[in-house]
Description:
- This protein is α/β, with parallel strands linked by helices.
- It contains 15 helices and 16 strands.
- It has helices spanning 3-23, 26-42, 44-60, 65-71, 75-89, 129-140, 154-171, 187-192, 208-217, 240-252, 271-284, 293-298, 307-311, 326-337, 350-359; strands spanning 98-103, 109-116, 119-124, 144-148, 178-180, 201-205, 230-234, 261-267, 288-291, 303-304, 318-324, 342-346, 364-367, 386-388, 396-398, 404-411.
Amino acid sequence: MDVAAYMAELGQQARAAAREVARSTTAVRNQALLATARALSAARTELVQANQKDLESGRANGLDAAMLDRLELTEARIDTMIEGLQQVAGLPDPVGEITDMTYRPSGIQVGKMRVPLGVIGIIYESRPNVTVEAASLCLKSGNATILRGGSEAIHSNQAIAACLATGLAEAGLPESAVQVVATTDRAAVGELITMPQYVDVIVPRGGKGLIERISRDARVPVIKHLDGVCHVYIDSHADPEKALKVAVNAKTHRYGTCNTMETLLVDEEIADDMLPLLAQAFVGKGVELRGCERTRSVLPDVIAATEEDWHAEYLAPILAVRVVDGLDAAIDHINRYSSQHTESIITENYTRARRFLTEVDSSSVMVNASTRFADGFEYGLGAEIGISTDKLHARGPVGLEGLTSQKYVVFGDGHIRA
């Protein structure tokens, strides 16, 4: 296969399809989503059979148990994909919304209309259900998409692509509105991220290595976050019971997510009282603690933390703990070591909470809440295509609105500029 020619063809088809999707009605796009849900339900046997090929190949190639688990399509996961399509169909459509209409002294009216981005390229690994999630969000927001899943899920993704094509055709939309790359050649990724004439934005979903490569090599704007080094700061004005509950949830609810707390900061005024309570709770859940010198003076059994620990995204039952000299020191630590994903302060002091919200430079900043809430569904977006720690266009969980932009619209009645 000539990969460059193949990807250019996908790009041309996506660009043409994007125009048709953008001018389609909400009802038509919802019809496509619901028809895809029915197609998935009818194709359960084919989906499982295709997935078995991927699982067998994965075992033969030495994929570990965690990767195989993410790769597997069970009946329950197929049900979840179907439910997700139905939920996205039920979300409000942001496309075409006009806001901020004002009369200017000249007599014209000026406002902003929300519009699709165009063609979205999505690069992801392992989980075939991402194919449905990404396609549904792009389609609902009026975009065309090119999906490049991991080579380990090629059969599963192609089976899902057939269901998406069925749904699009039933709604009268071009099948090229959602295209799943059919080659496992890695050169396809290099082509996809360097086609600005066809692709308007790239969304990578995967490990840090993948995202770093795409960020470095792309000639197309990228919506991404590299890692989730998230912090919880327990202020001297915190409610101890509240602080303990939030900190334990932020770390132990799930270990392998980007919004899991990786560093806990404790104000020195309450360290002697709080650290033993925190240690008891974390050790009871099997979490390994790595602490600064001040932490180890209170908890001598804790492993000594190194400079690398303050930068670490463990994605495991390991937690870095640091005692800090008040709010200023906590903010300085976060702004130095954070990946600008999610940070939380536990305090009953309104003034300190406001300072934390204002001065911490991350995409989500919280007061008295677990970092685990940094998620599109929990934020009321219905679903998300990923988290963005960038500062342009979209920041934080990226839902339907994040897959659109705005343009100015002007209404006049024969007005001319004097």
